[in-house]
Amino acid sequence: MMKLSSFLNLDKAIPILNTGRYTPVGDLTVISICILMFIILMQTYSHRNRNFGLALETLVLCAGSALTNVIYQVNLIAPPDNVMFFYLSRVVHHVILALVPFFYLLYLQVSLWANVANSKRHMNFSLLLISTAVIIDIVGMFLHFTVWIDENSHVQTDVNPYIPLCGVFNLAIFVVLIRFRSKMIHQAFWGMFAPIALSVFMLIMQGIHGQTSFTCATYLFPVLGMIFLFHSNPYDIDTGAVDESYFYDELDDKLNKKRTMILVSCTMMNFNKIIKESQTVKLEFYQFFRQNVQRGVLYHFPNDRMMLVFEKKFSLNQDKIFNHMLEDFKAGHQKFKMDYKIVIMETTPEITSSQEYIRILDFVEEDMLNNTIHEVREDDIKHFYKDSYILTQLEDIVKNYDLEDERILVYCQPVFNITTGTYDTAEALMRLKLPNVGMVFPDQFIPLAEQNDLIHVMSLIILNKTCGAVRTLIENGYYLNRISVNFSTLDIRYQNFCQDVQQIIARNQIPYEKIAIEITESRNESDFNLMKQKVMELQKLGIKFYLDDFGTGYSNFDRIMEIPFDIIKFDRSMLIESGKSDSAFYMVSTFANMFDKLHYSVLFEGIETEIDEKSCVRMCAKYLQGYKYSKPIPIEQLENFLTLEAS
Ligand code: C2E
Ligand code: CA
Ligand code: CA
Fold it and tell me: What's the CATH number of domain 4-230, 1.20.1070, 1.20.1250, 1.10.10, 1.10.3470?
């Protein structure tokens, strides 16, 4: 059996391998790096889009070209007896070597000028070039102008048709990179261009010094760059964006260096999904990002947010560039109609944490309408900090779970009873009194408490305090039918809701019927059944139920009738509506009449004037509430509206 070393001609070749023209060090290094890269890529996170396969194949070609070069070089120094074998090693090596830049071009083609018809043409043309080089090489072998073995069994070489072949591919890479430069973000362009320029320079230097040892190595560098840039690196080639995780470090670093940065956050609904599914949208975004995001870094967040961060430079006409970008964006939006919210914010020296900026952006974005652009101002930041402060206070209230917590105040609004002409009921309204900011109104803290699941304890505190006030009023001899307390639909979801309410009223030693509960209808089907069940349970104790804000929700009569409410509170918007036209008045009064006939009591909210009052009386109102009678007052002052019980 033939020994491998003699098959490869190594026996003769090894002593003379180090000729000065060639050493296998470069090629062996390339093979090792390729194997290492392959293992690393398989083991670690890498961005495996459809180009990833192409990148791996190019890596395999690099290793292949290095391996075949070792064999070819051995044969060159010590020609084998079998001429065919020698010749084969030369062709295989050179073709594989030429395929490396060719695959690199294919990679660029997929990313930069993807066009199926064109790519077929380019592919055919390239294969034609490769075959031409091979044919010239073979013909040259017989005619002795490329490579041949002379009568002394020495290899003679002259013209190498593969050099112009590789030259054409290298040149094509340069042309493509420069031509499609605008399609790439700045960093990506230089990340690709620089290693290629360096490789070509090295090849030329090798040529000048008659060296061939590092040819394959120079071809490997751009491939490594490409893999790192687009697969092992945070760049997302779809959008040219960098992964979110880098945002925090990089912004913190800039903030440390006291640079003023501009953050442009753009949230596009379902962006992540759409960009994966639609090639047209993707191409449009290519265009947009490549053309506009030349300066600064674009980050991609998982929640459909893209964020452009760039340094504020007073010398540059940034506004103009920026406005151009927004115009471009809006033009794109006209086509694709993807809902967006854009928030623009300049960093300030007072805020030094990147996380904090994200929280502010989230905060501002939440209050925005779709398809609007908002520039963050000092007011927004103040508002954000006030909200954060309120939230920590609410958390503290819930953590302490003190039913007498002094930060929660009970205000109330007396309700006028038309039948008796007296004030015998009232609505309890919550206020907060916080150390740093003073009085806080419900619109500022109820949504916060609901969003953060803190409302339940607060509801129990206000219920407890209201019960305490009712007890004092009764003890002081005032006549009070009941006070209604607002509960959120979230409260109803608590398993212990009924038990908690019952216990608090009982521990204040007042009759259950002195307390009523106001709830707003819920859009949630499962809430509805739960609400019905809990209302009925507490009604058995004598607790009355009010349907709050009738006319603002999506009331479905069948459902309202299913829950045995006692009082229907018509929202102020219904009153306003009824004043707009005769038919509107007719509609609202028909609702009110119907409830009246069905033995519900009707309460109109938001009575501000005499005219309001008169029209509500015409509409079968039983109770009236509004600024006309009283603004919300501290519950201690309610006695001013009540009558003393006849003793
Ligand atoms: P609501 O339950 O509809 O309470 C009535 C609101 O209308 C009160 O606002 C009251 O000040 C206001 N109002 C009263 N009369 C008039 C009027 O003549 N004209 C106008 N334009 N407004 C009038 P407030 O106290 O700021 O409360 C706002 C909302 O916050 C309440 O609306 C209620 O949904 C919620 N809320 C208040 N206290 C509590 C509470 O203890 N628990 C819960 N869950 N929500 C509460
Ligand atoms: Ca209410
Ligand atoms: Ca209301």
Answer: 1.20.1070
